[in-house]
Specification:
The chain has about 180 residues and is mainly alpha-helical. Among the domains are: about 55 residues, no CATH class; about 60 residues, Arc Repressor Mutant, subunit A (Orthogonal Bundle), CATH 1.10.10. The protein contains nine helices and two strands. Strands 1-2 form a two-stranded antiparallel sheet. Helix 3 crosses helix 5, helix 3 packs parallel to helix 6 and helix 6 crosses helix 9. The longest helix is centred in the C-terminal third of the chain and has 19 residues. The chain is globular.
Amino acid sequence: MVSLRCKMIVKTELKKLGLRYVMVDLGLVDVLEDLTKEQRDLLKANLLKSGLELLDDKKSILIEKIKNVITEMIHYSDELPKINYSNHIAEKLNYDYTYLSNIFSEVKGITIQQFIIIHKIERVKELLLYDELNLTEISYKLHYSSVAHLSKQFKKVTGLSPSFYKQLKQKRKGNLENI
C-alpha cells in the first residue's frame, strides 16, 4: 500500500468481512482476531480486484516494507534524511542493510539503490510538472550533488533531459488549451 487511497480500500474490505483492526498502515494491517482460511481467501480476492495484494510470506512482506520506506522517504516527506539512505532504511526496519539489500535484489531483480534512483526521478518529474521549483532547487531538495548529476541521472532513466521533459509538458499543455 503506497497511498491513503490504498489504506481506505483495505479498511473498507476489512469492514465488509466484519474484521476488526487495530491499525492499517502502508503495507501493514494489524487485525484483532485470527483470520479463518475463508476470510483470508476472500480478503485476498477482494483486494486483488482493487489491484492490491495480500502478502503471506516473510520475504514479500519485507520487500514491501523496504519499498514503503523508500516511497515515503522520497514522495511523502518534505525533507529527505540527512543520513545515508542505506542507514535510514536499516534503522527504520531494524535490519542489517546488507541483508535487506540482498533479499531486495534477489526478489526484485534490481538493487535498492536503483529503486531509489527510479523513485527520485519520478519525484523530479512531479516537481518539474508543478513548476514551483527550478532545477537547482529540485537538485538541492532531493540531495543531488549538483544539477549536472541530477540531469545525467534523469537522462539515463528517462532518455530525456529535464529541460526537454519540461518543454514537452508545456507543449502538451498548449495543445490541450487549443482543443
